[in-house]
C-alpha cells in the first residue's frame, strides 16, 4: 500500500506523499492516537480515528491544499502544511523524494526512510541522519560536513563529489556506494562497511578508519594522510590496490 486509503489520490508525487503522511501522523497524535509514520500503521489509526468520531475537516483541508498546490518543492509543501521541515520529519517516509539542491542544514531526519531519494547538491551540513535509510539515494555533490550518519544505510548510494568532512559515519553501511572524488577528511568511518565501494580519488585526510571494512573496495588514487585506526597490514594492502599515502610532514 502506498497511501492511506481514501484520503488522497494514488498518483501524487513522492514529495506530496511524504508531507501528507507526516501531517497525518502528527494530526493523529493530536487526537490522542500515538502514531509512527508507517503507511500500514497510519491506515489502522485513521480507521480508529474515524470510528472514534474524530473531526477530519481540518485534516481534509490540509490534504486539499497539498494535493492542489502549484509547487512540488518539499520545503514549500511542508510550510503549506504547517510543518517544520527541519524538525517534523524524523522517522518519516520520503521514498523517492526530490530534495535536490535544498538547504536542509541541521535537519532532523533521524531514522527516516529516504531510499531512492534525490539529495544531489543539497546542503545537509550538521544534519542528524542517524539510522536513516539512504540506499540507492543520489547524494552526489551534497554538503554533508559534520552530519551524523551513524548506522546509516547508504548501500549503493551515490556520494560522488560530496563533502563529508567531519561527518560521523560510524557503523554506516556503504556497501557498493559511489564515494569517488568525495571529501572524507576528518570523518569518522570506524566500523563502517565499505565493501565493493568506489573510493577512487577520494580524500581521506585525518580520517578515523578503525575497523573499517575495505573488502573489494576500489581505492585507486584515494588520497590518505595521517588516518587513524589503520594497521600496517591494511595500509600496505591499500597501497597495493592503488591508494596514495601522503604521510610526509610539510617542511
From TrEMBL:
Transmembrane segments: none annotated. It comes from the Bacteria. Pfam families: Pentapeptide. InterPro entries: 5peptide_repeat, Pentapeptide-BTB/POZ_domain. Coiled coil: none annotated. This is Pentapeptide repeat-containing protein. It comes from Limnoraphis robusta CS-951.
Amino acid at each position: 500500500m502506498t497511501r492511506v486509503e481514501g484520503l488522497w489520490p494514488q498518483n501524487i508525487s513522492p514529495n506530496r506523499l511524504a508531507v501528507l503522511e507526516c501531517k497525518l501522523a502528527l494530526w493523529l497524535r493530536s487526537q490522542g492516537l500515538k502514531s509512527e509514520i508507517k503507511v500500514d500503521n497510519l491506515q489502522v489509526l485513521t480507521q480508529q480515528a474515524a470510528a472514534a468520531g474524530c473531526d477530519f475537516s481540518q485534516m481534509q483541508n490540509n490534504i486539499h491544499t497539498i494535493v492542489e498546490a502549484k509547487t512540488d518543492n518539499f520545503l514549500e509543501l511542508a510550510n503549506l502544511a504547517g510543518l517544520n521541515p527541519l524538525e517534523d520529519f524524523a522517522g518519516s517516509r520520503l521514498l523517492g523524494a526530490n530534495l535536490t539542491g535544498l538547504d536542509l542544514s541541521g535537519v532532523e531526519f533521524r531514522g527516516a526512510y529516504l531510499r531512492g531519494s534525490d539529495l544531489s547538491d543539497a546542503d545537509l551540513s550538521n544534519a542528524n541522519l542517524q539510522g536513516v535509510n539512504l540506499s540507492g539515494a543520489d547524494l552526489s555533490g551534497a554538503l554533508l560536513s559534520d552530519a551524523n550518519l551513524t548506522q546509516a544505510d547508504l548501500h549503493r548510494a551515490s556520494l560522488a563529489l560530496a563533502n563529508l568532512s567531519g561527518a560521523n559515519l560510524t557503523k554506516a553501511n556503504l556497501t557498493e556506494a559511489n564515494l569517488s572524488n568525495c571529501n572524507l577528511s576528518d570523518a569518522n568511518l570506524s566500523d563502517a562497511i565499505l565493501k565493493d565501494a568506489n573510493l577512487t580519488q577520494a580524500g581521506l585526510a585525518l580520517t578515523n578508519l578503525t575497523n573499517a571494512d575495505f573488502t573489494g573496495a576500489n581505492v585507486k588514487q584515494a588520497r590518505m594522510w595521517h588516518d587513524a585506526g589503520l594497521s600496517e597490514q591494511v595500509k600496505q594492502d591499500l597501497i597495493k590496490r592503488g591508494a596514495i599515502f601522503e604521510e610526509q610532514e610539510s617542511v
